[in-house]
Amino acid sequence: MKHLFSLLCIPLVLLFAGAKAQTYIEYTYDAAGNRTQRFVIYLKLADTTNLQDSASQVNQPADSSSVFSENIGNCKVSVFPNPIQGKLTLRIINTLSPAQTPETKTFIYNESGTLLKQTVATEPEQSIDFSMFTVGVYYLKVMVNNADKTFKIIKTN
To answer: What is the mean pLDDT of the chain?
Structure first.
């Protein structure tokens, strides 16, 4: 029986050894403390083998899988990289009038819902410094023209 278990486990270990992903599991609880939901979050890690000179990559995400894009009102909002270590880039493109960038408000909350930082941007690309925050999960609320979207941001070492 032990040998059968080993024969089944070895191929699985070899299969996942080359995978470049990270898994987070989150739970939600009711008021009595009972677990009500389980969420499995798979994050694909950036492939660092094909990176070019870092100076040419200043405003570009290292891996397109780390870019999260959403339509908020008439704007396309991109947030990258995620997970982050230092600075997060927020890119806003007005789909109706690309030459005009609407006023954008950002709010950063911790897991308990406390507002940590608030900014107003009028540029199409904004850098948000997360280096002052500890490792953990944060929520970035982006508000454009009275429409908003919240992104889950993971801060690592």
So the answer is: 75
